[in-house]
Amino acid sequence: xxxxxxxxxxxxxxxxxxxxxVAAHYGSFNLEQRTLASGEGFVDLSHRDxxxxxxxxxxxxxxxxxxxxxxxxxxxxxxxxxxxxxxxxVEHFFSGVDDGSSFLAWTEPGAGEALPAYLERMKFWSDVTxxxxxxxxxxxxxxxxxxxxPRESLETYAAAAGPACGFWAFEALxxxxxxxxxxxxxxxxxx
Length: 191
Prior knowledge:
This protein has 191 residues and is α+β, with helices and mostly antiparallel strands. It is 23% helix and 29% strand. The protein has five helices and eleven strands; from the N terminus they run E-E-H-E-E-H-E-E-E-H-E-E-E-H-E-H. It has helices at residues 29-37, 58-65, 114-121, 154-161, 167-177; strands spanning 13-14, 23-25, 42-45, 49-54, 78-84, 90-98, 102-107, 129-132, 136-141, 145-150, 164-165. It has a five-stranded antiparallel sheet, with helices on one face. The protein has a four-stranded mixed sheet with strand order 10-9-3-11. Strands 1-2 form a two-stranded antiparallel sheet. Helix 1 (29-37) packs across helix 5 (167-177). Mean pLDDT is 93; it is low at 185-191.
């Protein structure tokens, strides 16, 4: 995983493990958490794997494979979904948005190979294409939630959307929101 260019910002301290490519904090976890809680700032999630699912059958196909209702999904509406085993265990997680011609999604760091590989095996006769999309990265803002920005524009985005807040502050607020993290799916050594 490529390190985020935002790790060069003043005070940036890299995260640990799968989150090492982004900043854990930029000098003060507590101040960054308060910034996000006040509705300001953004979080760099560029270490998450991004995939694009395109084709006319994409929503019907995703509807048949996942825990989420994708049929009739309105473009621009963000949604999260699980792929479950026959026993109901979470096998894959992704979250994203449809733009009317493709569904762009992020998944946990390290899951970017397993999820597309699984989806490829499940295509059968459906008219869909599944590709990793390294040209896009995920970010999170308190006022907007998750969104994607072009990887090449991340530094420009950061300058306009600032201040940058670290992953630890984001995690504290994610837990407060009751939003689960399925990071262990990407690491077979985590139970």
